[in-house]
Amino acid sequence: MKKLLIASTSTVHGKGYLEYILPELSKFFKGIHEILFIPYARPGGLSHNDYTAKVQEAFEKINIKVKGIHEFNNPIDAVNNAKGIFTGGGNTFLLVFELYDHKLMSTIKNVVENGTPYFGTSAGSNVAGLTMQNTNDMPIIYPKSFITFGFVKFNINPHYLDPDLNSTHMGETRETRINEYHTINDTPVLGLREGSWLEVNGSKVVLKGKLYARLFQPKKQAVELPPNTDLSFLM
């Protein structure tokens, strides 16, 4: 049975990297002493080594070792042997490009569907949906496909932002862009606000954290969903 934590972000205001979600991660990876980290999204251009070191520093607090997938000669074997997987945030286009380039998209999907725990933040959460088409990132590289893991049967918009009613900015809001997506696509989109995450066990999906999420569906008004909402109806 698949088991996932799909988080909007790695860092919330006023706290350190992963600090807000470490108690959940301690339970989620209970009994696991080492996880495989996928640093391909490279936030801010971080090297794979530096990104992995940053993740290791956070996971040390819950006594879990981290090994970057770039440290293995055979990344497919690394995935197949992993006890747990964390895909970090950064640029989703780059992440998806690398996953396809290393022939890992189907490999990761297979092991997670068969029970390897998967934790994702930001770009690593965006790819948990059916496609990456609701990323907020710039297309710095062209991946083989926009199709991603499909662990949940909808798309995820991490870092969802509400319109600032006091702003004079006249550009498109996040809601406008998602509505544009729905002019030619039917896949539901869940806007995850900072500090929220999805807990997935098999086909059961529950919204966690203290904030509401915003659900967009084609030809329907967007709706606000409170914490602990069961989203299994989208599966």
Distance between the termini: 14 Å
Largest sheet strand order: 3-2-4-5-1-8-9
CATH architecture: 3-Layer(aba) Sandwich
According to DSSP, the number of beta strands is: 11
> How do the helices and strands follow one another from N- to C-terminus?
EHEHEHEHHEHEHEEEEE
Helix content: 10-25%
> In CATH's first tier, which class applies?
Alpha Beta
How is the biggest beta sheet arranged? Answer: 7 strands, mixed
**Helices and strands: which structural class?**
alpha/beta
The amount of beta strand, in percent, is 15-25%
Tell me the number of structural domains: 1
Spell out the CATH superfamily.
Class I glutamine amidotransferase (GATase) domain
**What is the number of helices?**
7
Poorly predicted runs are none
The radius of gyration computed from the alpha-carbon positions, rounded to a whole number of angstroms, is: 17 Å
Determine the CATH topology: Rossmann fold
Q: Kindly state the mean pLDDT as a whole number? A: 96
Overall 3D form = globular
GO molecular function: serine-type peptidase activity
GO biological process, one term: proteolysis
InterPro entries: Class_I_gatase-like (IPR029062), Peptidase_S51 (IPR005320)
Pfam families: Peptidase_S51
